[in-house]
């Protein structure tokens, strides 16, 4: 028996990076996983590699959330876990140089996606009187912001506050909401955070503030998510779990 046996999970942004690591861990622990990503080719490849279902979807669109929920119910008859991992940032730059499209990107992909996922899926849990589990992939940027990423950092702070609010509101319905806050990792987004190519040398300033002395890895984030998604965590809600080698201390 795996730690997530019989559970059905949607993992967004699971074609690469942290999301793919989360999908891998959940599948290893017995969950039925729907890899949900905007990038069709990468999503299909990840789904094939990990023996998961695939849904090509844009997390900023209500109709896509409705379609992915229906896909889970049609195929598996239930949904238990939503990992809101898909995220976006603009390149690190002075705040006065940020353009409207940069602001809209981070607010839509990082925040509106949380709004839409809860707006579409919480009613399902309430209707079916089922326990539910939402995990948002936030960031240490919400808690220990660095310069040059003002609106990315603010979008992740919004994720944390929305998560805590919904944890309080829906605790009586046994729907849990938690955030995981990773420190910098090595993924498709890292060069944007750095504002320069992702090399060990360019990463050194970020890594120097991490007591354990290394960037995060997808498995670090996946292990934290697995715990939060499992029944071992059925009394844990409203938590922002920093997975950061001590960065936020
Ligand atoms: N990499 C880091 O250093 C770091 C640190 C802290 C938090 N995070 C967060 O981790 C999460 C995962 O990012 P990652 O680092 O693995 O990056 P990544 O670029 O490897 O993965 C992001 C995935 O999200 C998908 N995506 C983007 N917009 C989407 C949309 N509108 N709809 C559906 N899918 C979409 C992309 O196609 C991609 O597969 C993000 O929320 C990010 O903010 C990353």
Automatic annotation (TrEMBL):
Record's PANTHER family? OXIDOREDUCTASE, SHORT-CHAIN DEHYDROGENASE/REDUCTASE FAMILY (AFU_ORTHOLOGUE AFUA_5G02870), OXIDOREDUCTASE, SHORT-CHAIN DEHYDROGENASE_REDUCTASE FAMILY (AFU_ORTHOLOGUE AFUA_6G09140)
Question: Is Metal-binding given among the entry's keywords?
Answer: no
Q: Enumerate the UniProt keywords alphabetically.
A: NADP, Oxidoreductase
GO MF, one example: oxidoreductase activity
State the superkingdom: Eukaryota
| Protein name per its UniProtKB record | 3-oxoacyl-[acyl-carrier protein] reductase
Q: Which InterPro entries match?
A: NAD(P)-bd_dom_sf (IPR036291), SDR_fam (IPR002347)
């Amino acid at each position: 028996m795996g730690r997530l046996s019989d559970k059905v999970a949607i993992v967004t942004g699971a074609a690469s990076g942290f999301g793919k690591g989360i999908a891998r861990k959940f599948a290893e622990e017995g969950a039925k996983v729907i890899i949900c990503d905007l990038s069709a080719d990468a999503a299909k490849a990840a789904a094939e590699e990990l023996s998961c279902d695939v849904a090509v979807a844009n997390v900023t669109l209500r109709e896509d959330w409705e379609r992915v929920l229906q896909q889970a119910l049609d195929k598996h008859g239930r949904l238990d876990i939503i990992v809101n991992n898909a995220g976006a940032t603009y390149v690190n730059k002075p705040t006065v140089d940020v353009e409207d499209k940069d602001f809209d990107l981070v607010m839509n992909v990082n925040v509106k996606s949380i709004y839409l996922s809860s707006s579409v899926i919480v009613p399902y849990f309430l209707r079916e009187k089922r326990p539910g589990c939402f995990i948002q992939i936030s960031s240490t940027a919400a808690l220990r912001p660095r310069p040059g990423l003002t609106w990315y950092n603010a979008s992740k702070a919004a994720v944390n506050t929305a998560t805590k609010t919904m944890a309080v509101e829906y605790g009586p319905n046994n729907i849990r909401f938690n955030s995981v806050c990773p420190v910098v990792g090595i993924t498709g987004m890292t060069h944007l955070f750095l504002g320069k190519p992702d090399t060990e040398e360019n990463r050194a300033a970020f890594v120097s503030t991490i007591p354990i002395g290394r960037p995060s890895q997808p498995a670090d984030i996946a292990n934290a998510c697995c715990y939060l998604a499992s029944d071992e965590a059925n009394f844990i809600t409203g938590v922002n779990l920093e997975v950061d080698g001590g960065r936020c201390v």
